[in-house]
Fold each of these.
Amino acid sequence: MEELQDASIHHTAAKLINTIKTLKNYEPLYENVQKLVCSPAVDRNDMCNTLEEAIKSAGLETEIRNIIFHLVRSKLKPEEKPSQININDPLAYLKRAGVQWDRRVRKSLNAMCSELKMASQGQPRVATDRDELMTKWDELSNYTIDLANYRPVYAPKDILDVLLSLKGPSKAVENTEQVPKWEFSHISLPVKNLFELRNHYNDLLRTESYGGSTDMNLQCQRVLESKHAPLCQHLLRKGNTPAPYRGALWSYVLGSHINNFDIDHWNRLKATVLSTDHIVDKLVFKDIQLTASNDDQYFVFEDVLYQVLLCFSRDTEIAQMIQFEHYPIKGKNYEAPPSGVVPFHGICMFAAPFCYLFDSPINLYFTFRAFYIRYCHRLTTINTHPQGIVSICLLFEKLLQTHEPQLWSHFRELQIQPIRVVFKWLMRAFSGHLPPDQLLVLWDLILGFDSLEILSIFAIIILSFRKESLMQVNSLDNIEAILADLSSIQVLPLIQLALSRD
């Protein structure tokens, strides 16, 4: 048994080393270690011990630990890439639906390109347009662009309609008659019950006081001085992060601190935007004008959002880092934007909250990018990930059935799908629906617990909170009117209440 454990540890260590060597920050890290080896602090006669102490003293140990922390969370997890269809896979239909949805979205984008006589992979930007874009880069809200013929490729409602139309493996007749067609019960994805969720979010239920704002400020300062990503993540679990420290804490948790190679990458992305005219540019401008520009909380950030989303659309590293659903199906493949992400209605609302955390577009960009890749992408594609939108919808439905049976029955009597009421909250992770200060608390908890399940819990407790009013209405319009204004909602106490209920 010990030999097997040793072999497993050795295999994991070897895998870590090989993966670290492929990272952008490997070369500067290796150079710093080489400098230490040649320094007086390292004794050739006791190389192992003295080098280890020198690495600790120089702060490189923490940097290495943070790299391993991020790798273990993401890149070392095996990806499922089946070479052929497994007819016994109970989720085969869902994986196939994910690939078909991605193809459908790309096909729509390509059709729009054909309709507007634009190259699907972009074309050289004319000199006058390039010069205007360059001159107005810091005030892109004044950039002249005709968007009359452009429309969002898809919206939350479109992906919800696909989810509700999914047909799972056939069941016995007696079962199918009991389950309405619009429920998610046929989906075999595992989701937690309330007891398991309490265990996962146990830190939120502790009764000890975290102290006042002064004490929390001191804790943030100490943790940030340590530069240790897991400690930063643990601190975010408290849900009362002081605003001045939030951006730095998020950067450590997401591994998005800026290096010289990041600045070079940003400049290359900007140069690509200036030199190439792509249909996604118009879709980015259209989305921001339809959403953030009309939002009282975010319209002031319009210019920086244009910069960030335009560069995001050109970033080929995103396509390499995102874990797309893999499933072999026949048919034509369609071109995607360089980032692999087709802009949809509301995509800029994932970036908008970061404007409250960072003054620099570069810092904002890389932290937003990391957050999108780890979380937002799972909410905007059809996938089988346990943190994906399908799992989050299924969790919401099961919690509503179990802990709010009256509301569940009320929705069923009205033949209103409960998920239709909350889907826009879930898919956007409540961005644009909660005031920014409360949204950032919610996203603190997503990062702190590394889980999107908090979205389903929060959606349930909002319905519970307004249950009395909901029970008195009998139309979808009236239900949506009751839930339209979330400005008075306080995230932390409501989630604590949801987790502590019987």
Amino acid sequence: MSKPALMSLHQALKRSFHSLEQNHKVWNSVLEECVPLMGSLGNLAEQLLALNGVQMASTPLARFSDLQDRLRCKLLVAVDTVLDKLADKMCSLQKVRDAVGNQVTAAFQVYEQHADTLDLTTCLQRSAAAPSVADMLEWLQDAERYYRQQYLRRKALLQALKPGELSDLQNAHRRWEALATPEREDSVSDTLFRVSFFMDSP
């Protein structure tokens, strides 16, 4: 077993977990910012549906012949604005996915560089301050997979939304919430807790 190799790998793992910790906070913050935007989409869709159901000719507003079209246009512009804001949020989520993925890749590259000098016993060895190398690499892979899958599913949902598809817009917030996987989200938090002493060690 090469002690310098293990130290080098530990440093790479620490960098990966520090990156994961920072990006985990960003990810959760961005998802929270998406909640009211998804709610706005539903509200706008309901307003558009209600507007479509109004017979202007039978109301006192009948003399304003283009009022219904103008209101519809205004609401559709608002839908586009919300979708644009959500697209910006997806860019932020993509940055998190990429940052975590790059750090995990970097950690595995360091492991592969030193694989010949790191025997199985060393990789499976745990201590009071540090989980095993094998466990930490697996936890990083799990976190990377979580962000990658969540990003792709949320991106696919948003890409399928069109301003004219009112039923889809109306149900978008429920479908968005249904994409959450609390148990996997908790597993990332649990991982950060398990490596907290390791991250702070010299």
Amino acid sequence: MPCERKPMRYGHSEGHTEVCFDDQGKFIVTCGNDGDVRIWESLDDDDPKFITVGEKAYSLALKNNKLVTASSNNTVQIHTFPDGDPDGILTRFTTNATHVAFNSSGSRVAAGSSDFMVKVVEVSDSSQQKTLRGHEAPVLSVTFDPKDDFLASSSCDGSVVVWNIEEQAQVISWPLLQKTNDVSNAKSLCRLAWQPGAGKFLAVPVDTKVQLYERGSWDHVSTLSDDLLTQPINVVAWSPCGQFLAAGSVGGSLTVWDVNSKLSVERQRHEKGFTVCGLAWHPSAGQIAYTDTEGCLGLLDGLSTSTPDSNATKVTRDAPS
């Protein structure tokens, strides 16, 4: 699956930077430490439109022409997309939110915060909120089960938790990560990702590997690894078909696995070896956009994501050891 690594573009000031595509894949959207959201028509866009959302922007999510951001004034805001008009505050925390994510339909947003809380908010009526309490340190990431029954979160307390959203209760908690007191000190952002479609697998980056857990049984069923990965994986993202998983790591490794075969099908390196902290798969084309901790944006182009059998559920279970 040889792909082309496009030259990096300067996008934001130095610091944590995130990226996503819009639903149609027409725009690449980034946010960063300068408090701006930039809307790129392509990687070659020399004058991307920008929206200032705060002093710093920690995270963004985009669905149904609604742009959600976590900014340094402890709020989660909505702006219209691509116009960038303010459309209200979804929720507030007592300190900054660290990660935001939409559910698959765009009707709900989840946000995790440095105040240990996870909130699930209805986009159409932000007074409809559920608060998931139980983490004992700042939240690193949140991801919805595509069927909208569960939410998974990772935290500086060392745990990855699956929650029943309606019951606001923990279903299971795995002690997988190194404990730390703050997101800035965490070895990895541990950005979880639930497989699209049936949501059979939850992908959890743990050190230099990705662990796959099965929805429902919550069994650990598979490990994705690559001998060339020597530093912690920060973020993972599924291909829209659910058959491939991409990972970006501290030190700039970019790896793509075929989840069925568990083989690495693409290996790339950040051109300067900077840490990859944002990753997004184009909704239809074979492209992955990624961002680094220096505020730059890159693109892998020409990824082959079509296979004769795109049945995304055929991951073989690891034999009991």
